[in-house]
Amino acid sequence: MQQGTLMRKVKSKSWKKQRYFKLQEDCMTIWYQSKRTGKTESAFSISDVETVREGHQSEVLQSLAEEFPPERCFTIVFYGRRGNLDLIAGSAEEAQCWVQGLRQLIESGSFPLTFALVSCTWVRDWFQKADKNKDGRMNFKEVQRLLKMMNVDMNEDHALRLFQDADKSESGTLEGEEFVLFYKALTQREEVLSLFQEFSEDGKKLTLLELVDFLRQEQLEDEGTEELAMELIDKYEPSETARARHVLSADGFLMYLCSPEGSIFNPQHRALWQDMSQPLCHYFISSSHNTYLIEDQLRGHSSIEGYIRALKRGCRCLEVDCWDGPNGEPMVYHGHTFTSKIPFREVVSTLGKYAFKVRHPSPGAGALLSHPLLGAEGRWLCWPPAVQDPSGQAPWRCWVVQGASLSPTPQELKHKILLKGKKIGRLEDTLDGPGDEAPDVSDDDNGAEAEEERRRAKVGGTQRGSALQKDKETLAQALSDCVIYCKNVPFHGFQEARSHSRPSEISSLSEAKARKLIRDEGNEFVRHNAWQLTRIYPSGMRTDSSNYSPQEMWNVGCQIVALNFQTAGTEMDLCDGLFSQNGSCGYVLKPPFMRDKETLFNPTDPSSREGPGPITLTIQVISGQQLPKVANSKEGAIIDPLVRVEIYGVPADQAHQETKYIENNGFNPRWDETLQFQLHVPELALIRFVVEDYDKTSRNDFVGQFTLAFANIKPGYRHIHLLSKDGTSIPPSSLFVHIRITE
């Protein structure tokens, strides 16, 4: 790995600045500085880097393909919504050195982080930050500065006592293991030690039977408890002697509580755990709106990064707005606005690379895509029997249920892309061959928009000549033939849909229209969504790419609730929270009472839900650990954290409660407060834990959050590992809680 390399940082075809890049001594941080001024511009941690792409794998580098060879180009991709870093090295050798070096560093930190490893990394990072003169030792003044950096406001006498206890060499400084001792004393978890001693007869260890008692009584583990206890000891007990004796020390107990097995999120639900053999309309489907946009809706930047980021987050329904471009090449952008444009072929290529890279491959339900998809990526399409696959690679399959009704399942459609769009004629015409019936070109609710679509689908303009007209007519029919299970039809009411619509059709509704239907015909809406797909999209007034609440749409069973993935906030936290389960495949099975076409359920009347009565969710918020500072806070500022628990679900379940704030302690605050909620429809509830920095004169500042579906909660003593505003992890920041669920 190069220790200092001059490379070009590129933001656009005309913006190319030379910067020195250097890997710092900790092998975890990279900074870069201006060649002209020598001033350090920025730094980032290896833990912030998701991957490194070689060659011209960004729009900016593609625009420079003629000027710089791919061997010198690479892109650093960060987690979350942070922009990529496009770089051009001075030579292919330098580029390879950085690419391979970065990948090794990323790979070495990509294995599951144990509590011990996180703490070790955390200790090293803090030591290097506080060691002002870089002599490898820390005096008491540097320790006091460190405490401020770590969000700790500690009595000076107490801090000095901890310092002196750790200074075994009596040198007046801490180094190496002495600092580790100081850190251990600082991070002593009294609440965990007290819990440990409650179940330990001698206060020093948990025997196998004592651990089994804890797992049964507190963690409510009722199956294979002895086997689980043995597994936890083998996995988390740091002492070989203790492991051989089948006992768990206090350190091992803490490591277990901080592990995935001790998380509030049921680890079994992280994997694919739901039935994937039901019709598509029985699932909530992770969906994005105007996926190509990474900024606002009027002048924002269109980018293939929008598709890459959405797909990596488990999104399964993407939107592609395709318009005529120069020389007949289709371009993707937000029509009738000033957003930038990207070639359609680049979108298709991106889908081919990233559509099925999620952990558990599942179908991607695409939006209206154009004819080039039938080329290189045509193998992904699902073809009807009447249409041969032009690529010669994709075996078509078709599922017919009850005659002409088509109800495919996610399992059957694995590794396939569906096209949602308008269709010439009926679906049966595609399957059986065209009949005598007049073509039915379906449209949206907006008449002018539909007329424009019809004009564009028919002919590209008389000035282009009859040859191009013929190509476009063929294209329109070919594209229509590819629309199988998601034929777009206008919505004219639930009665009309029952009489004339088919399960293979889908309607798109604005958020305002959907809200009116929820208010006026809630039960009819739920019944409709039990047999047909519905897509909801944001209001056209949301030009800033803000989002509506998806929860009210999920409450009536709407499957495709399209959100602006580029905009962080509560709405995307809910989306990530719902779809973080089931292998993050982008599909979540709806509750049984929402899959019944004759259901009586109405979200405005919880008593209409069939099943047991309300349940009580009791949350004891015990403590927090190493909470991050608020972004852009003043040097030396320490947060005053509070925890708010928010419930999202049917209207009767919507609620929030919060703890008091703890003054000047973001390092190890203790709340020991109990919050209680009654849930009438727990199957639809999402729980959001939010940590904020209290401010009595202005709005509280966001610190971290974690959201999950009620169905994924594990009761007992659990840690909640917090996420940033972008949805990325911020280890080792966490909350420690006790969860009880009673009927």
Automatic annotation (TrEMBL):
Write out the GO MF terms.
Answer: calcium ion binding; phosphatidylinositol-4,5-bisphosphate phospholipase C activity
Q: What range(s) does the PI-PLC Y-box domain occupy?
A: 479-595
For this protein, the record's Pfam families field holds: C2, EF-hand_5, EF-hand_like, PH, PI-PLC-X, PI-PLC-Y
Q: Which segments does the entry list as coiled coil?
A: none
Subcellular localization is given as: Cytoplasm; Endoplasmic reticulum; Membrane; Nucleus
InterPro entries in alphabetical order: C2_dom, C2_domain_sf, EF-hand-dom_pair, EF_Hand_1_Ca_BS, EF_hand_dom, PH-like_dom_sf, PH_domain, PI-PLC_fam
The cellular component terms of Gene Ontology attached to this UniProt record, alphabetical and capped at eight, are: endoplasmic reticulum; nucleus; plasma membrane
User: Which named protein is this?
Assistant: Phosphoinositide phospholipase C
Provide the species name: Malurus elegans (Red-winged fairywren)
UniProt lists the gene as Plcd4
